[in-house]
Write a structure and sequence with these properties.
By secondary structure, this protein is α/β, with parallel strands linked by helices. The chain is built from 13 helices and 22 strands.
């Protein structure tokens, strides 16, 4: 059978773009369809603009810290509109680069919403297009619960485009997106409340890391309400009244939900081809990203494996190698270095203390909490946390966790060591770089006694 394309990619986000470009480099005729903007969640409304906002929100604290080092910063003022304008210009620049790179790779970009018609056919703009393979890379979208007044709340998508900063905001959620935006708004001078229904923020992370971050966020001025949830939101003349499930109320200028993301498979037509979906609507795939239909694959957030941009990129690359370069590859999702750009930020790789214990490992825990050198002159009370989880049987470092400045940069380098299976003895054999915070991780002497 003759097809219009060897590969048709639905979604031009990080995973879809990488798969499209690499497949084209292996000789495939490729088209990618995108209904919004090329670049996907990360570039357009996720990690990139969010980190730009994180940078912006740090300056108030940096100005305060500067005084201890002899600097006088006079009449510092913040203008939200300027930040948004400059952020938009940078997103436009990156969007154009993505488009340029796709075209340079020989990939045809089709604007519009594509849906699946059958195992080898997609519909776009009223016409049918055939392909030997279809790759679903449509990502995920913010989950908004069905409560009274939810139409008054925004998600992380809209947070990048609000016209003016409110005086007060309630951020609902306890995951990395919620804690990051709570830090952003707090740093920009907004009275910020973080509401989470669980007992502690960042479920799934090491418990000591969770507690440390919550304590530091509280010191910085974020009000954290755990074991709490919103029952209703009502609009008022000055903002909104939030009613909690316990009947208490709170006035606020804005409510933002960051309570998870769900795969964007609704009305995508996957049922027409018989593609199996999971309970959340995620596309079910095997280790090589293939669905139960041989001609249809899926990568990235839509598969609900790990909602992280670098993972989607790696999955897209592995797909291209497997299908178009006769080089079958599988992505290892077991060890994923990651960062949370909270304030202070988190860098983590491998197992947390509780996870390692639950998996049956006899472990030694090395940990230290201290004020980093910069904070001695500035008077900043923020503390850094460093933690190693070591398997007592073979000395292998099972997990490494950092809460503090530059932890995202550090975890990328330490992630190499953990991925390679480094031992505590190899950490000990590494000469420290002094004076740095990171040297703590290669100078731990005694494990923490149980119960301390």
């Amino acid at each position: 059978m003759n097809f219009d394309y060897d590969l048709f990619v639905i979604g031009a986000g990080s995973g879809g773009v990488r798969a499209a470009r690499m497949s084209a480099s292996h000789g495939a005729k490729v088209a990618v369809a995108e209904e919004y903007r090329v670049g996907g969640t990360c570039v357009i409304r996720g990690c990139v603009p969010k980190k730009l906002f994180v940078y912006a929100s740090h300056f108030a604290e940096e100005f305060e810290d500067a005084a201890g080092f002899g600097w006088t910063v006079a009449d510092a003022k913040f203008d939200w509109a300027t930040l948004v304008k400059n952020k938009d210009a940078e997103i436009d620049r990156l969007n154009s680069i993505y488009i340029k790179n796709l075209k340079a790779s020989g990939v045809e970009i089709l604007e519009g919403r594509a849906t699946v018609k059958d195992a080898h056919t997609v519909s776009l703009g009223g016409r049918d297009i055939t392909a030997k393979y279809i790759l679903v890379a449509v990502g995920a979208t913010p989950f908004m619960p069905q409560i009274d007044g939810i139409e008054h709340a925004i998600s992380s998508n809209e947070a990048f485009h609000i016209e003016t900063l409110p005086q007060d905001i309630i951020v609902v959620g306890g995951g990395y997106i919620a804690v990051e935006f709570a830090g952003i708004f707090n740093g920009l001078g907004v009275n910020t409340t973080l509401v989470y229904r669980g007992e502690q923020i960042l479920r799934g992370f090491d418990n000591e890391v969770r507690d440390h971050l919550a304590a530091e966020m509280t010191v910085k001025g974020v009000s954290i309400k755990t074991e709490s949830d919103i029952a209703a939101i009502a609009k008022t003349t000055t903002g909104f009244t939030v009613t909690y499930q316990d009947g208490s109320t709170q006035e606020t200028g804005l409510v933002m939900y960051a309570t998870g993301r769900v795969p964007m498979t609704q009305a995508l037509g996957l049922e027409n081809a018989g593609v199996a979906l999971g309970k959340k609507g995620e596309v079910k795939v095997d280790a090589r990203s293939k669905t139960n239909i041989d001609s249809i694959y899926a990568v990235g957030d839509v598969t609900e494996r790990a909602q992280l941009t670098p993972v989607a990129i790696r999955e897209g690359a592995a797909f291209a190698e497997t299908v178009f370069n006769d080089n079958p590859q599988e992505v290892d999702h077991s060890i994923i270095p990651t960062a949370v750009f909270s304030q202070p930020p988190i860098g983590t790789v491998g197992m947390g203390e509780e996870e390692a214990g639950a998996a049956g490992h006899e472990i030694d825990v090395y940990a230290a909490s201290f004020r980093p050198m910069k904070n001695t002159l500035s008077g900043n009370p923020e503390k850094t946390l460093m933690k190693l989880i070591v398997d007592r049987a073979d000395d292998k470092v099972l997990g490494l966790h950092i809460v503090g400045p530059d932890s995202g940069e550090m975890i990328q380098a330490f992630g190499v060591a953990i991925t390679m299976g480094a031992t505590k003895a190899q950490f000990d054999a590494t000469i420290a770089v002094h004076p740095t915070a990171a040297e703590e991780l290669v100078t731990f002497k005694q494990p923490r006694q149980k119960g301390t």
